[in-house]
Specification:
alpha+beta, three-stranded antiparallel beta sheet
């Protein structure tokens, strides 16, 4: 009898893990430029230099409660900013916001700073979108 209950419990735990992982994966989405505009926009601040390299602070609230660069037209009380993807190609940086439903208290609707690593001195232009999109510029900064 004990062996039967262990098998049932094992199957239950396995199914719970599979469903939880599927839910987390299926609810994640890269925010489009149109979505970013509907929730109030996005901007960058001055990069911070740390022992691990530079971090670029990002101001964006995917809930639509803050007016960052434009007045928000959408409210999303259940969405969180899960992470920010960055791609660096020379002096051009592309950012993409990954949104999803918060499944723990570690996630917030406000985006956090993104790690850029070590950057060479120079002027950097930051765009929103994939590495081929140069039409949604969100800021410029200089590393001395």
């Amino acid at each position: 009898m004990n062996k039967k209950w262990l098998i049932v419990l094992g199957v239950f735990v396995l199914l719970t893990l599979i469903l939880g992982t599927s839910f987390y994966t299926l609810t994640r989405e890269i925010a489009s430029w149109e979505f970013i505009q509907k929730v109030g926009g996005i901007k960058i601040e001055t990069p911070l230099e740390t022992e691990e390299g530079f971090y670029l602070p990002i101001v964006c609230n995917v809930s639509g409660l803050d007016s960052v660069t434009i007045k928000p037209t959408n409210l999303n009380s259940a969405l969180s900013c899960l992470k920010t993807n960055s791609t660096i190609n020379g002096n051009i940086i592309h950012l993409k916001i990954v949104t999803g439903i918060a499944i723990s208290e570690n996630f917030d609707c406000r985006c956090k700073a993104v790690s850029l690593g070590d950057l060479k001195p120079g002027s950097y232009t930051v765009y929103y979108g994939d590495k081929y999109c140069l039409e949604h510029q969100i800021g410029i900064f200089t590393i001395e």
